[in-house]
Amino acid sequence: MMKTYQIAASILSSDLAHLGDQLDLLETAGVDWIHVDVMDGMFVPNITFGPLIVDACRKSSPLPIDVHLMIEKPERYIDQFAVAGANSISVHIEGNPNTYRTIQAIKQHDCKAGIVLNPSTSIHALDSILYDADYVLVMSVNPGYAGQSFIASSVKKIAALKELMSNINCDVPIQVDGGINKDNIKMVKDSGASIFVAASAIFNHPEGVRSGVQALQEALI
Predict the structure, then answer these.
(1) Which end of the chain is more exposed for a tag (fewer CB within 10 A), N or C?
(2) What is the pLDDT of residues 82-126, one digit of tens each?
C-alpha cells in the first residue's frame, strides 16, 4: 500500500553532538524528511541553525531536507540554504510583503516552496498565494521552541484550510508542525494534513529514536 503521509523529523530536539548518528537512525526508522527549523532571535525569540547545519545534514544523509525559515526578510538567505542542500524551503506569510517573489526565488533553485501560517493567522491570508505554493505549513504551536503542547484549535483550522483548497481546486499538501505526538497525529491526519513534523516525540522518546518514529507510524494506521 502506498503511503499517504510523510513524517519529518525536526532536528531541533536532536543530539547535535551526534548528529550524523541521529540522521542514520532516522533513515533506518523510515523517516521521510529531515526538518530544519531556522530562527534568528528576531522573528521568533530563539536562535537556532544556519546553512552550515543544512550542509552537515546534506553530507550525512540522503533524506530530503526541509528548511523552515522563521526569520526576518527570508528572501536574503534563500540562495544560501538552497546551495547548502535544502530540498524544500518554507517561509511565513506574516510580515513578508514580498511572499510571491520569495516563493519564485525558492523555485528557481529547484526547491519546493512552502508557505507558513502562525496559529493566530487566518487561512484567508493565503488566498492570493495558494496556487503558487507547493505545500502549506500550519503551525500548531507558537513558533520558537520545541516541546510545546499542541494547540487543539489547529484541527479545525486544518480542516477549514483543506475545505478552502477543495473549493478552489487547489490540491497542495498540508504540513503541520508543533506538539505532534502519537496521541494526536491520527486526528491531525483525519483533518486533512499529510506531512507531520515531530521533534520531541521522536528524539525524546524514552526508548529511543527508532521507537519514537515507530510510535508515530503505528498511530497513523
Answers:
(1) N
(2) 999 999 999 999 988 889 999 999 999 999 999 999 999 999 999
- The per-residue pLDDT for range 3-22, each reduced to its tens digit, is 789 999 999 999 999 999 99
3-state secondary structure the chain: CCCCCEEEEEHHHCCHHHHHHHHHHHHHHCCCEEEEEEEECCCCCCECCCHHHHHHHHHHCCCCEEEEEECCCHHHCHHHHHHHCCCEEEEECCCCCCHHHHHHHHHCCCCEEEEEECCCCCHHHHCCCHHHCCEEEEECCCCCCCCCCCCCCHHHHHHHHHHHHHHCCCCCCEEEECCCCCCCHHHHHHHCCCEEEECHHHHCCCCCHHHHHHHHHHHHC
183 is catalytic: no
Record: fold of 6-220 = TIM Barrel (3.20.20)
Among residues 55, 177, 183, 190, which one is catalytic?
A: 177
Going from N- to C-terminal start, the domains of the chain cover 6-220
* pTM beyond cutoff 0.85: yes
Q: Which of 24, 37, 40, 110 is catalytic?
A: 37
